[in-house]
Amino acid sequence: MEAVRRQTRMPKHRFLFSASTYQTLSWGLVLLAAFVVSPWIEQGINPYWFTIVIYCGINIILAVSLNLVNGFTGQFSIGHAGFMAVGAYVAAVVTMALGANPAWNEFVASNGISESAVLPIGLCLGGIAAAGAGYMVGMPSLRLRGDYLAIVTLGFGEIIRVIMMNTEAVGGASGLNNIPFLSNFGWVYSSVVLTVFCVWRMVHSSHGRTLLAVREDEIAGEAMGVNTTQAKVRAFAMGAFFAGVAGGLYAHQLRILTPQTFDFNRSFEVVIMVVLGGMGSISGSVVAAVLLTVLREALRVVQTWYEIDIRMVIYSLVLIILMLTRPNGLFGSREITDFFPASLRRKLAGGAEARGGVK
Rounded to an integer, what distance in angstroms lies between the CA atom of residue 221 and that of residue 208? Predict the structure, then answer.
């Protein structure tokens, strides 16, 4: 009788689908560590390579957020740069407006608040604006599938770029200048941690199961009562939100925005990161984003040798080789934790594997 009671007793750590306190605290410590180590990293790394580290973080956010749509929901969006543009412009306008506001400056000075405190306000508003744009484009278009959806999202990204190009309030074709330099290691990688955590929680939840049902067989999902359109719109809006956050961080790192920055080539770069890392693998998106960002910069040496820019040729050849050797991406649909020993995976999952929740 005692043995049966022990078997039916709830484990110390709840199943990972139920937002374990242990796991949440672990993510919180990683988030805090990003700010703690920020001063040492900024002072100890060469400025050039530090900039690449920042861009790696921004690309991780873009790749993971797009993977939620393309990988876990099974849709094919190639307009992610449009959501990034919305977030970038909105965040830049907000921070510039607050920076020029005497009342805000007086409030900051009187309370001893850092000037960079305006950045999270801009990022949140930029992300919300991008999510709203994602919702608006998602509602009418996500009833479409396959190539039709890809064309619609590509067209939406181009519409956003053309609107920015013809709006003088945000600089028009010449771009938006004098954006305050507010991005740093702490803000960028805390955003990375939040993005990975939120997408991971989303996927490993009841909502995530609906996304996977849409990916595997949309018709069967509808037959089982899944609101597939609602699930796709939810994933689209969430992915757009984090794309907007990445755009805001990018704007406050580069300090200048031009509509040409957010053309369809930018969207294709993010799609390549998702495909290379593995559709449906968060870890794969992280690794692929870092790999491709560093690779492009490392190939600048080749340009100095031959005095011509053949980086994109080599870049493309490397991608072709990787796709031929790893057609499902570097990780496929697996996560990096799947390669850990079983005992370590049980600890990370809070006992979920022992109950059959982790394969």
Answer: 13
Range of the domain at 128: 2-355
| 159: helix, strand or coil | helix
Q: How many domains, the chain?
A: 1
For residue 257, the SS3 value is: strand
Residues 322 and 340: their CA atoms lie apart, in Å, by 24
Q: Indicate the pTM of the whole model.
A: 0.86
**Tokens, residue 67:** 């993977």
How distant, in Å, are the alpha carbons of 90, 144, 178 from that of 123?
A: 8, 30, 17
- How would you classify residue 70: left for phi > 0, otherwise alpha for psi between -120 and 50, otherwise beta? alpha
Question: Got the DSSP string for 79-100?
Answer: -HHHHHHHHHHHHHHHHHHHHT
Closest by Cα among 129, 118, 78 to 95? 118
Q: Write the pLDDT tens digit of every residue in 34-47.
A: 888 888 888 888 88
